[in-house]
Amino acid sequence: MTSDEFRELISNARWFERAGSFPSEPGFLAITSLSFWDDENSSTGIPALDMTLGSMIWLPQSPQDPTPLEMPPQVSSTAGNDEYRLALASLRSSDGLACLRSSGHDYSLVAIRTAAYAMRLAAKEISAHAPGQWCEIARIFCFGNWPLGVSDDLVVVY
After folding, report:
1. What is the phi-psi region of residue 97: left when phi exceeds 0, alpha when psi lies from -120 to 50, beta otherwise?
2. How far apart are CA 146 and CA 131, in angstroms?
3. Confidence at 112, pLDDT banded by 50, 70, 90
4. Is there a contact between 83 and 120 (Cβ–Cβ < 8 Å)?
5. Is the pTM of this model over 0.85?
């Protein structure tokens, strides 16, 4: 994917429109509800799923956050800034944010920050001519899903 193709993908993103209503793919775990995180004694009723969600590491929202995924190769410090700004502008006008509320919790700000930061990291991979896991995460976001984090066994939860 080229930088121009990536910017077009961001511009046409269907932010969060499919969150909770999509099939799981190999290497990914699709969940249909954010209600697991509604209170500290949450349970889906499925022990393996409860363990996976309970130990999941959320994707980062900023460089200060820990990440379960490999960081992109070192490139220019400004690489990805344009894509980050483009994503933020597109995210602010998203119609898909209503599905990011569960009980009294509103996950929309977290989702927006995570999506924008993922676009920056994917752009850095593209800039380094090494598209990888952040480009895949970016595609998941742009196709309307919300990749939340990664399980202990590196399965992407979305």
Report:
1. alpha
2. 20
3. very high
4. yes
5. no
Nearest-angstrom CA–CA distance, 51 and 156: 14
Mean pLDDT confidence for 3-13: 95
* 67 and 60 Cβ atoms separated by less than 8 Å: yes
Residue with tokens 């130990």: 55
**HSE (CB half, 13 Å, CA atoms) of 106?**
6
Per-residue pLDDT of 65-108, as tens digits, reads: 988 888 888 888 898 999 999 999 999 877 767 777 777 778 88
Whole-number Å distance between alpha carbons of 136 and 122:
8
Phi, psi of 121 (to 5 degrees): -65, -40
| Residues facing residue 29 across a β-bridge | 157
CA distances 69 to 77, 145, 149, Å, are 19, 18, 9
* β-bridge partners, 156: 28, 150
